[in-house]
Write a structure and sequence with these properties.
- The structure holds two protein chains of two kinds.
- Chain A is an alpha+beta fold.
- Chain A has a single domain, classed as Hotdog Thioesterase (Thiol Ester Dehydrase, Chain A, Roll), CATH 3.10.129.10.
- Helices cover 29% and strands 27% of the residues of chain A.
- In chain A, strands 1-3-4-5-2 form a five-stranded antiparallel beta sheet, with helices on one face.
- In chain A, strand 3 and strand 4 form a beta hairpin.
- The radius of gyration of chain A is 21 Å and the shape is elongated.
- By secondary structure, chain B is α+β, with helices and mostly antiparallel strands.
- In chain B, strands 1, 2, 3, 4, 5 and 6 form a six-stranded antiparallel beta sheet that branches.
- In chain B, strand 4 and strand 5 form a beta hairpin.
- Chain B is elongated, with a radius of gyration of 18 Å.
- Classes of the chains: A alpha+beta, B alpha+beta.
- At the A-B interface, helix 2 and strand 2 of A face helix 4 and strand 3 of B.
C-alpha cells in the first residue's frame, strides 16, 4: 500500500480497475502455467462441464495482482502531486484464502476492488504493520469471479526505533564488524 | 462420458495420503523479467540493480510467478493425469523464501482430503498440500489447493460432507 500504515482506513473500498481477457492471452497463460484441456482451444474444452474454453483461475488472480500494483503506483503519483511523501508497502506474506466463484470466458471483463479489513503493528518486523486485504473480482454481469484474503505489509510513519535496535543498526555500519554481526544473526 | 477424461484416474482411484513427486524447473532471468512485466512490474523484479538494493538482495521471481510455476509442475505431474474438473481455490499460501535467478524449484503434492460434493454427485473434492523447495532443499512456498474431480459413479454424499 502506498499509504502509511497510520493513514489506511478500514473497510474503505479501493477500486483497482478492470481487465478484459482475450482468448489469445488466456491461451498464452494456460500454455505456460496451466495447460489443462478446458483452458486450450482444440483440446476438447467443449466436453468439459464449462462447455468451452475458460481462463485459468490463477490467470485472473495474477491479473488482479497487476491491477493492484498499477493502482498503488497511481496513488503514489497522486500523493506526490499533492506534495506528500507516499508510504511504503512491503512484500506479500501470503494468502489466507482464495475462492474461485465463477469461470472467466474469452471477452469477459473483470473488475477488481481492494479493501483493508484489519490492520495491526507487526511484532516480528519493527516499523511495519500487517494488513488483512480483501480482494474481490466481479465480471461484467456483476457475478463474483473470485474472492481472496491476503496478508500484506505497510510501513509505519511514526515509528521510533527502540534504542537497542538503533545501536545494533549503527554497529552494522562499521566495516568488518557489520559483516560479522550479520553472519552471526 | 467425457471422452477427454475417460481413461484418466477418477475420484474413486485417488487415495488419501498419496504423494506425487513434481518435476523441476529452473527460473531464468528472462522468465523473471517477462512475468514481472506482465503481472508484477515492481522495479525489484525487473532490474538487477534495483533488486540488489531491495530487501530481496538480488533478482528474484514474483511470489505469484513461483505459484504459477508450481501450478505448471502440478498440472504436468498430476492434474492432467486425473479427471480434473477445475480448481475451487486455495488456502494457507505462504511464501517462505524468495526464488532467486537460476534457482531450481521442485516439490511434492500430497492428498490430504477427499470428499464427495454434496450439491454435485458427479464430482468429488480433492485437497492437495504442496511443499515447494529450492535446489538446497530449503522451503520456498507451501499451500493447500482444492480441485474438483469427476467421479465414475455419481452417488450422493455422506451427510457429514460440507459442500
Amino acid at each position: 500500500m502506498t499509504r502509511w500504515f497510520e493513514d489506511i482506513t478500514i473497510d474503505e473500498p479501493f477500486p483497482l480497475g478492470s481487465h478484459t481477457f482475450t482468448e489469445d492471452e488466456i491461451v498464452r497463460f494456460a500454455r505456460d502455467y496451466d495447460p489443462q484441456y478446458f483452458h486450450l482451444p482444440g483440446a476438447g474444452a467443449e466436453h468439459s462441464h464449462f462447455g468451452g474454453v475458460i481462463a485459468s483461475g490463477w490467470h485472473t488472480v495474477v491479473m488482479g495482482h497487476r491491477k493492484m500494483v498499477d493502482a498503488l503506483e497511481a496513488e503514489e503519483q497522486r500523493l506526490r502531486g499533492l506534495g506528500e511523501e507516499p508510504g511504503v508497502s512491503g512484500p506479500g506474506a501470503g494468502v489466507n484464502r482464495m475462492d474461485f466463484k465463477s469461470p472467466v470466458r474469452p471477452g469477459d471483463t473483470v473488475t477488481y476492488t481492494l479493501l483493508v479489513s484489519a490492520k495491526r503493528p507487526s511484532n516480528s518486523l519493527p516499523g511495519w504493520g500487517i494488513l488483512t486485504n480483501q480482494l474481490s473480482a466481479v465480471n461484467q454481469r456483476g457475478e463474483p469471479v473470485y474472492h481472496a484474503e491476503l496478508i500484506g505489509f505497510s510501513k509505519l510513519r511514526d515509528f521510533k526505533m527502540p534504542l537497542r535496535l538503533r545501536i545494533l543498526k549503527a554497529l552494522t555500519k562499521i566495516p568488518g564488524l557489520g559483516k560479522l554481526l550479520r553472519n552471526r544473526s | 462420458m467425457n471422452p477427454i477424461t475417460a481413461d484418466r484416474r477418477h475420484f474413486e482411484d485417488l487415495a488419501l495420503g498419496e504423494v506425487v513427486g513434481l518435476g523441476q524447473i529452473t527460473v531464468t532471468r528472462e522468465m523473471i523479467v517477462s512475468f514481472a512485466r506482465e503481472f508484477d512490474p515492481f522495479p525489484f523484479h525487473l532490474d538487477e540493480a534495483a533488486a540488489k538494493k531491495s530487501l530481496l538482495g538480488g533478482l528474484a521471481s514474483s511470489g505469484w510467478q513461483t505459484a504459477a510455476l508450481t501450478l505448471r509442475l502440478l498440472t504436468d505431474a498430476f492434474l492432467s493425469q486425473i479427471a480434473s474438473a477445475g480448481g475451487l481455490g486455495f488456502s494457507d499460501l505462504k511464501w517462505k523464501r524468495p526464488v532467486m535467478k537460476n534457482d531450481t524449484i521442485t516439490g511434492t503434492a500430497r492428498i490430504i482430503e477427499l470428499r464427495r460434493s454434496r450439491s454435485h454427485p458427479q464430482w468429488g473434492v480433492l485437497t492437495i498440500e504442496l511443499d515447494i523447495r529450492n535446489q538446497n532443499n530449503q522451503p520456498v512456498m507451501t499451500m493447500k489447493l482444492a480441485n474438483l474431480v469427476e467421479a465414475r459413479s455419481p452417488v450422493s454424499a455422506q451427510p457429514e460432507s460440507a459442500e
